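Researcher: Structure for this, please.
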Amino acid sequence: MHHLRMVLPLTIMLLAAAFVPAVVHAFVPPLTIIIIAPSNADTTTKRDHHDPNSVITNYGGDTFVEALRNDAENDQYYAFVMFDLSSSVPSGANIASASLELYDTEGQGGDSMTIYVYRVDSNWVETTLTWNTNPTTESTPTASATYNPSNTGYHSWDVTNDVKAFVSGSANNYGWCLTISNGGWVTFASKEGNNNQYPRLVVTWTRATIVRLDWTNPMAVFDVVVSDDGYYVAAVNNTGLYYFGTSSSEPLWWFASEAIFFRSVAMSADGKYVVAGDSDGYIHYFNSSTARTGNQTRPTWESIDMGGSVDRGTLDMSANGNYTVVGGTGYNVFYYAGCTTMTGTSQPPAWGHWVQVVDFLTVHMSSDGRYVAGGGSRASGMGFVVFYKDCNMQPYPTGYTWFARTSTPNSITDLALSDDGYGVAAIEPASGMLHYWANATTLTEDPNATWTNPGTYGSVDMSTDGDDVVAGSGALESLHFWSNGRTRQGTQTEDWIRANSTNVRDVAISHDGTTIALPADTQTPEYYALFYKSDGSLIGNYSLLDYGSMVSMSGNGNTIAIAGPGFDSLYLFTVLTDSTPPAINDVYQQPAKDNVQPEDDVKVFANITDVESGVQNVFLNYTSGNGTWFTKPMENFEQDIWNATIPAYPYGTNVTYAIVAEDSAGNVATSEESYTLEYQVVPEYSIMLFAPLLVTAAALVLALRKRRRTYLHY
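Model: Predicted structure, token format:
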């Protein structure tokens, strides 16, 4: 038998597992309420002194589940229930509310009885679960309801936080366990019971955030940057600098030279200014980048030789393009001011500082150019973090603000800087430590980090306010997230861990901390681009053809580039919230509806499009009028045309059909009501019907012939 699932957009409609009505709403609003019924598993486990075998007996086939507690006799029954969310609520959906609803069929215990709901933490199987194999549960109940168990009907418990955890992936969905306070018992209808009294889960959710792959480019990439406004991408490799608009995989312009091997790139917030660093210690600056096209023969200006390769991660630019910092050429920091008005070659920095270190491995600048933080290695592999303030103000700095070295015994390979200079986060892979310095603008000398977290981290980033911190780990150690970074102290534990058993190669977080992106790979190896929200929910998972080692995103997190040094390695993604259902147009059939013969299969075609998240599934639902609906998946015939076939029916059959399309965000549409989506098989006309007509026609012919002969005789 098919169990019912109810979806309530603005009005209630019923959807069975193999049934979709001919007419449903053509638009699913951003707020969706879905009733999942029945449960996909429910049972009772018992410890009953009246029945010694109760602890090893399975009750999964009963038409009810029970909760009972009698401490005097040491009797206790647990009721278990579990629902499948995967086919009803899309991954990444924002859960507004969720309630567990069970139908009380009978009970006893008085008005003070309390029924508790606990989240189950380990797996169980309806057909094998017994008291002796009870799964583990949370120690604190998710919800409770106090009422007289003799009051029959549906009762509900708020399980919103549990469902949020299930959908986001922060907890496994093993359902719930129900217990009752001492002296009471209650029975609830199970999925095997009355059809109108199923266990049900009512979930209200808003439209999911999704990730769309916009394009790829088959080029190796040594560094990549997305403009803060999300409209432009620049990538470099040993053949040149390539500048893209985000609407096309073909570069708008490029600069290539056989003598220059680019290693790093940075861009202004609006994409108008681009700077690239090379392996010989020069930077190359391009203004009016958004207006350039085709092959470029020279940059606007070039720097002096700064003494070493300007590698990825050691070049940064202010939001307005007027300031550029370089820290990857050895032991010096170079700061360029007035970049937007400079021209020519051998341009010197506005100021520089010799730091007594071996090499800078990472450097970052605040968006206004006022603050700079860098990190790298000292003698014997020891590490450091250096901080400068008022970098864009004259008189320019002649030394650092502070220089942390005692607390960093190993090289610092990556760091992040908040936009107000308040927070600096740095990673030290060799010793396995994340460091966070708060109040960075007021620190001096050799400060210790305000808080730390141990881990084999290989990349780090933070929101512009420094409050959200994210770090990726190599050695199959996953992704880690901390909120409230500005106020933490001491040794800290992350809020959540995701992307388990993967090597996270790089990580980026949006300005507001809500979107996180990373390239990752497994030991197999398999390559992925993964996308998360700040609550840990996975919103996108794409397989990559080659190794991805870097990521860059726009300020709002909606445009994301992931790249690597292999071929087929530049990918551009868009993060969006899609609340628009697919469009279904030009529905037609072959043969036409007025010419369907009994031996004819009917092919149904439709033009179906979805410009935001793309068409995910299309189904053809049809009935011959006997109350039974059949569902067939439609296939993508060509371009935007989808089709499926209805089998032949006997003479005189009235066939009605509807097309249901779903996009990747879970929006659903049906064929418009203006279409006449039905046809009738041409009726059979028997020889008995035609016989009187034939006799009449023959008599008429004979009469005419006789009359003609009479006329000719005269």
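Researcher: Any notable elements?
Model: The first strand starts at residue 4 and ends at 8. Residues 273 and 693 are 89 Å apart (CA to CA).
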